[in-house]
Amino acid sequence: MAIFRKLARPLLASAFVTGGLRTWRDPGAVAPAAEPVVRPVAARVPALPDDAATLVRLHSAVQIGAGVLFATGRLPRLSALALAAGLAPATLAGHAYWTVEDPEERARHRAHFYRNLSLLGGLLIAAADTHGKPSLAYRVRNAG
Questions:
Q1: pLDDT band at 1 (very low <50, low <70, confident <90, very high)
Q2: Less crowded by CB within 10 Å, the N or C end of the chain?
Q3: Could you give the angle at the alpha carbon of 48 between the alpha carbons of 62 and 79, nearest 5°?
Q4: Could you give the CA distance from residue 17 to residue 24 in angstroms, rounded to a whole number?
Q5: What is the DSSP string of 49-112?
Q6: Which of 93, 90, 109, 111 is nearest to 101 (CA)?
Q7: Are 50 and 38 within 8 A, CB to CB?
Q8: Handedness of CA 118, 122, 127, 129 (dihedral sign)
């Protein structure tokens, strides 16, 4: 099973690292689509910037950093959680297919939306993966 983890992590992380690099280079291309999500999130979390371009660039930095950590097996559970936490709002901002009128464009956004849901599922599985060892909660319950 360890060989599967060593192969699967970089494969799963590649989507986040490449997407993060693309967005880091040109945050302005994504910022307008992120605007409807940025305002409510920034209002609830005062520590976050309320500027869409800045928040998009921050998100891309998290994608790159957590993606590299996940791909290399460093802090895999934490990095998977960080990627999952950023994926949900990014998916809602970028692929709200139900708001698109053009049938071809709607189909493209729907495909990306469900692809991102699949990635989210993989990240949640990875975040719960204990490498066959008992979880911290199990060890605490059965201590002594």
A1: low
A2: C
A3: 25
A4: 10
A5: -S-HHHHHHHHHHHHHHHHHHHHHTSSHHHHHHHHHHHHHHHHHHH--GGG--SHHHHHHHHHH
A6: 109
A7: yes
A8: positive
61 and 24 in contact (C-beta within 8 Å)?
yes
- CA 8, 10, 14, 17 torsion: positive or negative? positive
> In angstroms, what CA-CA distances link 52 with 26, 32, 86?
13, 7, 14
41-71 pLDDT tens trace: 888 888 888 888 888 999 999 999 999 999 9
State which amino acid sits at residue 45: V
94 Rama sector, left if φ>0, alpha if ψ -120 to 50, beta otherwise: alpha
In this prediction the pTM is 0.84
